[in-house]
């Protein structure tokens, strides 16, 4: 059973009573009534005559006529002068808007955009429609619902990558009407006019905040109301820790193993250092190929460049040790027979140093002469350089970690 309802368009009022639909509703089984069909039809004069004069069998066929809501509204408004594109009031109409975020499918750092599916709900009052006799319905409330897939821009700032927070946004506004005709507003009845139906989790990001705002923008044709939605995403950086930071730690630690191999294991130490440096470069390139080309330094850039500097410094230390070993080996040459080496120790202001004096013995009456005097210091031997490097390198790397994580911890937690 349907109650009577009416439409009023300008000076014309159209009223439909429940008697027009009663016979349609009673003759049909429940299984024959789809949920999306409005049962009943507007009967013209000929159908009304058939209703009164036809036999019961013919009535059963005629009563099964039904129409969708769109067809009924079109017939009701036919000839009334109602125009759905015309503003309900000359002073304009207020439209309340809600967004229901169904899903966010992707965020692309390369193209700086994101994709999402949302329900858009619009509500406004149309005085041309009269529902006063249908209490307790809301007065003249018109609804418009749409589910759309949209692509919006993101303002990507990768300075703190991979501990970064990104913001994406949407702008919703009327296409044809300025704010003198259509005033767009967020629905104030709902405290959250924009909300996610469920928790939004992406492989790289998590949605942490939604901020709806209203702005008024000036165009040549007038002032337009713009509904802005700012979506704040926090990066899920555990993947980058496992793929970048942890392998970097291991590579640097392996490069320090060369300090304990001894100063004469030059080939093995060289191979270890070069392989560690190549592994670091490969890791860095694997991460950077999935990021856009930007003109500023990122957090991951600082980490990788400093880590490669530590590995390169270990190769420099190896070159110094190898040079020391080569000098020591080249200094052990056979002495000429007329020179004699006298080794001893002598006190000096800088401590006790070993020295070597060479004398030339007199031959055929010549006087005794000095060949040369060579001082040899024992402070920077290859073994001592390796021992100091095994302490200095970890100490400096620990200081770098303290500074690095102290600076970026506010973005991480």
Jot down its keywords.
alpha+beta, Acetylcholine Binding Protein, Chain: A, Methane Monooxygenase Hydroxylase, Chain G, domain 1, 4 domains, 8 helices, 13 strands, 33% helix, rod-shaped
Summarize the structure in words.
The protein is α+β, with helices and mostly antiparallel strands. It has four domains: 73 residues, no CATH class; 144 residues, Acetylcholine Binding Protein, Chain: A (Distorted Sandwich); 124 residues, Neurotransmitter-gated ion-channel transmembrane domain (Methane Monooxygenase Hydroxylase, Chain G, domain 1, Up-down Bundle), CATH 1.20.58.390; 38 residues. The protein contains eight helices and 13 strands. The longest helix has 32 residues. The radius of gyration is 43 Å and the shape is rod-shaped. The two termini are 61 Å apart. This is Gamma-aminobutyric acid receptor subunit beta. It is a multi-pass membrane protein. It comes from Loa loa (Eye worm).
- Please trace the helix and strand order, writing H or E for each element: EEHHHHEEEEEEEEHHHEEEH
Domains, number: 4
Number of strands: 13
Low-pLDDT residue intervals, each spanning 5 or more residues: 1-50, 54-64, 333-352, 365-375
Mean pLDDT: 77
| CATH class term of the largest domain | Mainly Beta
Query: Main sheet?
Result: 8 strands, mixed
Helix share, percent: 25-40%
Strand residue content? 25-35%
CATH fold call of the largest domain = Acetylcholine Binding Protein, Chain: A
Shape: rod-shaped
Q: First CA to last CA: what distance? A: 61 Å
Rg estimate, integer Å: 43 Å
- The name of the CATH superfamily of the largest domain reads Neurotransmitter-gated ion-channel ligand-binding domain
Number of helices: 8
| Name of the CATH architecture of the largest domain | Distorted Sandwich
How does the helix and strand content classify structurally? Answer: alpha+beta
Main location: membrane
Protein name: Gamma-aminobutyric acid receptor subunit beta
Domain Neurotransmitter-gated ion-channel ligand-binding: 146-236
Subcellular location: Cell membrane; Membrane
